[in-house]
Amino acid sequence: MIDVKTKITSFFIFNSSFGPKEGEELKRVLFFHPNHISPDARKNQVGLCEAVVKFMSTFSSEPCEALQTQTKRYIFYQPEKGYWMVLVVTIPYATKATSAIGETRGEVLNPSIMSDLLVSAYKMFKLFMGSFKDIPMENIYSTCEEFFNPYIMSKNLTNDISDLIQGVSYLPLDKNCFFKVICLIDLLEVTYPDFKCISFVYNDQLIWNGLATNDMLTLYQYLVQTLLPKQVEKEIQGGAVAAAQRHGRFISPPDGIRTSDDLKKLVKVYLRCEDDTESKQYYLIIYRTLSATMCFTIDVNTTLEIETFRSLDAFIGPHLSTIASTISEQCALHALQTAQMLGTDQKFVYFNRLNLAYKSSASLSKLVPSTAIKPEVLSIIADIHTDRKSLGNYGEVIIKTPDEYWITGKTSNEREFYVIIQEKNANLKEIADEVKRICEAQMKGIFFYPM
Amino acid sequence: MASTSKDNGQAGPSSQNNTPDDLEPGACPESVLNPSDYFEEFASEISSSIQERNTSLKTKSSTISEIQSEISDVNNEITSTKSSDDLQSKDENMSASASSGNLSEQNGEESDNEKDDYLQSPELVNKEKHVFILSSAGKPIYSRYGNEDKLAGLCGVIQALVSVVEDQNQDILRSIVTKDCKAVFLVKGPLILVAVSKSNESETQLVWQLTYAFNQIVSVLTLTQLNRIFEQRRNYDLRRLLSGAERLIDNLLIFMEKDPAFLLGAVRCLPLPEKARENITNAITTTCHKIRDLVFAILIAGNQLITLVRMKKYTLHPSDIHLLFNLVRSSESFKTAESWTPICLPKFDATGFLHGHVSYIAEDCQACLLLLTVQRDAFFPLSQAKHTIAEKLRRSNCLVAINDALTRNVELPTTNPLKHIGIPEIRHFMYKCKSTAQLFTSDPISLDRLQDYRIRHKEGGDIGEKKIEKLSDIDYVRNYRKFCSQIHCTSSPAKLIFRSNSDNTVLAWVTNGFELYVTFDALMEKDQAIKAVDRLLRWIKREEQRIFIMNAPTF
């Protein structure tokens, strides 16, 4: 949640063209959090940001990204022309003096996590509400309130590497098992031509996707960070898995689909499916059995029949639960194998920009906060991750910090691999060899050069 | 250099903790330069609150009056009135010309509308780095490119931004960034300094450069005078006092972009045989030890220090020496005649002037001697001393040694260090000895190349995508900027960085004693790099007497 603890002072959205005349400045503010800030203070904040944006435009054709003052950092994001999202965070200007005073860095979020937060907030907004420019001016204030208030309250912000490098965790499956999943999807789309399967997720890992990569990440994040955790909580509270759940149910809309009234509650989203050239509006239907979740889209212009949904439920339920059990057996086996390979003081992250595949050592998952990465180390990884140019198409960087952390980053075309080792008396060569060993063990068949 | 045994051979970047003491080339117990941590000092100069900033510029005590009071028992009369005298004479100039200041003020307002157009004019557009200096009232003082008169509108905007952040938010504006551009703001005393840069320099590095630019102004006016001018007339047009200093700032900005001395906060020394340097130092000390008010005697050549003899207790800060380098290099007039000039060294004492006798040592030698004193009418005794020194240097063949070093005689091992060291994989390196704040790089400056860079820079300072076939030294230095900033980063510093990509391999390594940056061939093996660095350090150690000043002579 965005609050004092994470040092976010405010979050606002403005568009200067909405109140061009003097006296109408407040109209430019589409959304402002926190709510209790006075209109005058809002005007001042937005006014400063407008001036900063204008000032930089005289020197650079690129949009403004950040404003740093002694105590705060303003992070800017312009998702659509004229629309600016600004996040204001308490991050003191880094000097030796301030760091000596004992401003514990651990409490300060990494700036690049902050700017990613704005990007994902916008993408989520776009997924459910569409583009800013397509929303009529009289509705835009209420639409922003409606979306961003709950979004801000629900968003969980941590200094975590998975917030820094946002990717999708894919589930590795053997050929047969994967084939079963594909067969189910094909069979379904043939039997129910209005339905398109856009993703198949097991636990929080993706198996199949039918969206353009950008939308895939947003939908995946919605599933894994928002929808599924709530669902899992419900299931746990419900005690033993009820018979109905074994056979699956619709989890979006939240109350399931039983009567034709429920059809009116279907969630609409703006998505780009693989064959689409641009985003279109669809109904989003999500179905879940055991730990397997499937997402479908239906064109909004289709006439919906409750019968279709009932028959789909009957068809998909048994199939999906069989597949889910098979996958679960495989997962257990796989987890056992990888756990044995890695020492606990070594952490790695793999990321592929092309398909957003993300893999990290078990000790880095959010479930084990005790071994979280130190903010200094995270900030070094953030630098490597954001500064792609310095490593080029293939390259390697090894950095040693004063407290004996060795951070290695490798890139090879669109792939990245990071290893964190804490080792007192190692030398460059030993670290490089260790990284090579981890790379070979964990990323079998993925080639990094130089070796 | 006692033990070069096998086990030390592993010492490279492998294990900082057991770096043998003998592998700290250039270290010596007493330093001519003030080796206090350059980077920390810069950080502490940047005040962290508005209140602090308002007081920080005024509380320093005057080193010069301290020296003066020490010697005042002899010549009491002259010194007591000295520094205030000076300020008054400049003040008179100021008020005489102040009336015309009003005119340009009005012009500034009118051109506001043309501002955007002017910023897009060929003079200003597409520059890699702009530097603007204005008064806190928003009056333009200096612009690196274009005509600052036409930039009154822009300066108004900058002043407004700075004051809005201060007044509304009780905060200090530091920087604004876009993907390809950084604007860095520094408010110091009555001035606002802004750099707008598309270079790869970090924010901190840009702040240093602005601080240097501020110091350059202080060096011309003294801080006392600068503050007083704006206390008296907030709207004062400082340009009338700075005529001539624009060129100094211009040159300083180029100098800072090119010379790693600024990146590392260190001073380059002219490599000389130990004996020659000793003779030069002796010539100066024997000649000058009787001149009581002499604070520093400095011999420099081609932005490199040959020797520095000082009054006991006082040392010079590297950044003051950089300003002296810049002054000498920017002033052609020193070449033709002996000069007598007031110089304020901001780190040494920002409140008053030292008086400098500046002259080139001989027609046939490009070394420049600066004799800095607190005595305002010591020209003739110092001129006398200079001639004696020059004569002694010629007799002891020191001028030849200096010329050999300057013209990079091929027989000297330091002329082409890489060839002499014989590690073909090393393309470039730079080394800083921390305890003496001295620097050595694989490309000792030669005069013709300096000239070359300035000519190239004349053509613009424009951003251009040129295909680089062979990297020049300046390109290597540019490349190191990111490494330097990461090594000195306040929040997440690094002790060692090894980066290898398809262009090259760079190793940056900092220990308690030194900083080392090496560029190798692309895809260098780590163990080979370790070995090469070890050999490199040993070579520097072997040549340390030649490439560094290893003692701290006094009068």
Quick check: average pLDDT of chain A? 83
**Helix- and strand-based class of chain A?**
alpha+beta
Strand order of the largest sheet of chain B: 6-13-12-16-15-14
Strand tally of chain A: 16
Q: What distance lies between the first and last C-alpha atoms of chain A, to the nearest angstrom?
A: 42 Å
CATH topology of the largest domain in chain A: Beta-Lactamase
Largest sheet of chain A: 6 strands, antiparallel
Query: What about the largest sheet of chain B?
Result: 6 strands, mixed
Please tally the helical runs of chain B, counting DSSP H or I stretches of 4 or more residues. 23
Q: Low-confidence segments of chain B, ≥5 residues, pLDDT <50?
A: 1-21, 75-115
CATH class of the largest domain in chain A: Alpha Beta
List the total number of helices of chain A: 11
Low-confidence segments of chain A: 96-106, 366-370
Keywords:
A: 451 residues; alpha+beta; Beta-Lactamase; five-stranded antiparallel sheet; 11 helices; B: alpha+beta; 3 domains; six-stranded mixed sheet; 16 strands; Vacuolar fusion protein MON1 homolog (chain B); Longin-like_dom_sf (chain B); FUZ/MON1/HPS1_longin_3 (chain B)
What does this structure look like?
Chain A: Belongs to the CCZ1 family. Chain A: Residues 199-313 form the CCZ1/INTU second Longin domain. The complex is a heterodimer of chains A (451) and B (555). Chain A is an alpha+beta fold and 451 residues long. Chain A folds into 3 domains: 8-157, Beta-Lactamase (2-Layer Sandwich); 175-337, Beta-Lactamase (2-Layer Sandwich); 342-442, Beta-Lactamase, CATH 3.30.450. Chain A is built from 11 helices and 16 strands. In chain A, strand 3 (64-69) and strand 4 form a beta hairpin. In chain A, helix 3 (111-129) crosses helix 7 (213-237). Chain A is flat. Residues 96-106 and 366-370 of chain A have low confidence and may be disordered. Chain B is α+β, with helices and mostly antiparallel strands. Chain B folds into 3 domains: 6-30 and 412-547, Beta-Lactamase; 79-258, 2-Layer Sandwich (Beta-Lactamase), CATH 3.30.450.70; 267-406, Beta-Lactamase, CATH 3.30.450.30. Chain B is built from 23 helices and 16 strands. Chain B has helices spanning 38-45, 50-56, 63-71, 76-97, 101-110, 115-119, 152-169, 203-221, 223-232, 239-242, 245-258, 260-264, 274-288, 318-330, 333-336, 346-349, 379-395, 398-406, 417-421, 447-458, 473-487, 526-542, 544-547, and strands at residues 129-135, 140-143, 173-178, 182-188, 191-197, 267-268, 294-301, 304-310, 339-343, 354-362, 365-373, 426-433, 438-441, 496-501, 505-510, 514-520. In chain B, strand 10 (354-362) and strand 11 form a beta hairpin. In chain B, helix 8 (203-221) packs antiparallel against helix 11 (245-258) and helix 13 (274-288) packs antiparallel against helix 17 (379-395). Chains A and B meet through helix 1, strand 3, helix 2, helix 10 and strand 14 of A and helix 1, helix 7, strand 3, strand 14 and helix 22 of B. Strand 14 of chain A pairs antiparallel with strand 14 (496-501) of chain B, so a sheet runs across the interface.
